[in-house]
Design goal:
With about 110 residues, the protein is mainly beta. It has one helix and nine strands. About 10% of the residues lie in helices and about 50% in strands. The strands form two sheets. A five-stranded antiparallel sheet has the order 1-2-9-4-7, with helices on one face. A four-stranded antiparallel sheet has the order 3-8-5-6, with no helix packed on it.
Length: about 110
């Protein structure tokens, strides 16, 4: 069993994001390429974003700190601390309205059948 404080990790990643020229920082909390479940804590400074990209598979976003906007060509969703957003299966982007930390959870197929 492994225990991680998301509150502490969010604080650390926000500090790293503030020091980075991109205004972003990320840390894999669980999983990796060999797992079907992957959880990544992403920190973004206010105004920073992840450009529009393809959906990685089934995914959700939990806002741990701040306010963000997830936008696709069809719609957008805003979330603040404590909100849980289902990521659209279409191209989308993520924009930080405030300094923010989110937990991205993705499930995708792995193994020889992929």
């Amino acid at each position: 069993m492994n225990k991680v404080s998301l509150t502490s990790l969010a604080r650390e990643q926000l500090e790293a994001a503030r020091a980075a020229s991109s205004g972003r920082s990320a840390h894999t909390v669980y999983g990796g390429h060999e797992h079907s479940l992957r959880q990544t804590l992403i920190a973004l400074t206010a105004g920073s974003e992840l450009d529009e990209h393809e959906s990685p598979g089934e995914a959700t976003l939990q806002v741990l700190h701040g306010r963000v906007r997830v936008a696709s060509a069809q719609a957008h969703w805003e979330g603040s601390t404590g909100d849980h957003i289902v990521i659209p299966q279409s191209r989308h982007g993520l924009h930080a309205l405030d300094d923010s930390a989110v937990l991205l959870t993705v499930v995708k197929s792995v193994g020889p059948h992929v």
